[in-house]
Amino acid sequence: MSTLNIEFINDIKTLITESKRRVAVAVNSELTMLYWKVGKLVSLEILKGNRAEYGKELIPDLSKQLTISFGKGWSKRNLSLMVKLYEVYPDKNILQTLSAKLSWSHFINLIYIENSIKREFYISITIEERWSTRIMVERIDSQLFERTAISRKPELTIIKELELLKEKGEVSSDMLLKDPYILDFLELNDSYLEKDLEDAILRELQKFLLEMGSGFTFIDRQYRIQVDDDNFYIDLLFYNRKLKRLVAIDLKIGNFKAEYKGQMELYLRWLAKYEKEKDENLPLGIILCTGKKNEQIELLELDKSGIHVAEYLTNMPSKEILETKLHQAVINAKQLLESRVGGD
Q1: Which residues contact 132 (CB under 8 A, 6 or more apart)?
Q2: Number of neighbours of residue 107 by Cβ within 10 angstroms
Q3: Could you read off the pLDDT of 116-141 as tens digits, one per residue?
Q4: Which one of 56, 132, 252, 254 has the lowest number of neighbouring Cβ atoms within 10 Å?
């Protein structure tokens, strides 16, 4: 008796899976556009575009009537979300494009981000990385945008880099580099050594890669390089396929010290000489410390050497503390930019 070829069966399975995926995308897109149309009608016909009190009083009645006819999904809260969706995306064509890539649950969380550039950042990264709603919300709650280097750039620069990501899939280092990095998932004790930190990162490598950003691939720990007769060891070595760069990470306990620059420069120059492929960009260095002094960083001009210094936090701070730290980082970045412009 003949048997079916395994490859043939797998081909059929692939056809079914792909068809189901396309149907799901189409249904999601149609549902999102339906909600937009309902939101538009409610906004223009009931609220008259100005949220008058008499209009608001009609929404519960509309909710009741729709629920009787169509069941769940038409609560007062959901109708308010539909109105908000229309307010944020009055241009139907823009939303139609996004609805093919993002679910309604994505939009529910995105529409309440008031800063349009910040919202566009999360949209672009979510689409590029194919984040689920859960992961996207976790990234928003961790204030990912505010922690990236791109958030401290002028608005026109941010817009330009987001356009490059959308149109060509190009990711800049500023969109990946962060400060601080949140490493609370390592569950370290209050007292630990650099080796403990390194071991914990390798135990939770998937979570660490998510925090690092897109495109990172782990290569090795304690990567040995030899210069003359001396051996040196890079704590962690990664490759980023988006940036086409080797990334050396140095782990430090305590505040950043000026001598760390020379050590990292040695690593990067060795990697550039012996490990960089012809089509790759120059290696990048990340020095992770528990603290740093901004004037030191400014005077050393580390960014010109391809070195990024960032703090890491092993415990998730309160929202207020994190916001204060990030606000100060923005001020420092602006002062640095102004000083360089003034110097030129």
Answers
A1: none
A2: 24
A3: 999 999 999 999 889 999 999 999 99
A4: 254
Burial class (CB in 10 A: 0-12, 13-18, 19+), 102: buried
CB-count exposure of residue 316 (10 Å: 0-12, 13-18, 19+)? middle
Calpha distance 122→145 (Å, rounded): 8
The CA distance from 164 to 56, in Å, is: 41
User: Edge to edge, what strands does the sheet with 216-227 contain?
Assistant: 181-182, 307-313, 284-289, 245-251, 230-240, 216-227
Eight-class DSSP state of 258: T
In contact, 268 and 307? CB cutoff 8 Å: yes
Q: Hey, what long-range contacts does 295-301 have (CB within 8 A, 24 or more apart)?
A: 296/256, 296/258, 297/256, 298/336, 298/339, 300/258, 300/261
Query: Token pair of 287, please?
Result: 């020095």
Q: Which of 172, 159, 149 is nearest to 302 (CA)?
A: 149
Task: Tell me which residue has tokens 């969706």.
Answer: 85
Short-list 255, 244, 245, 260, CA closest to 302: 260
Q: What is the mean pLDDT of the chain?
A: 88
Q: How far apart are CA 264 and CA 269, in angstroms?
A: 9
pLDDT digits 0-9 by tens, 217-265? 999 999 999 998 899 999 999 999 999 999 999 999 999 999 999 999 9
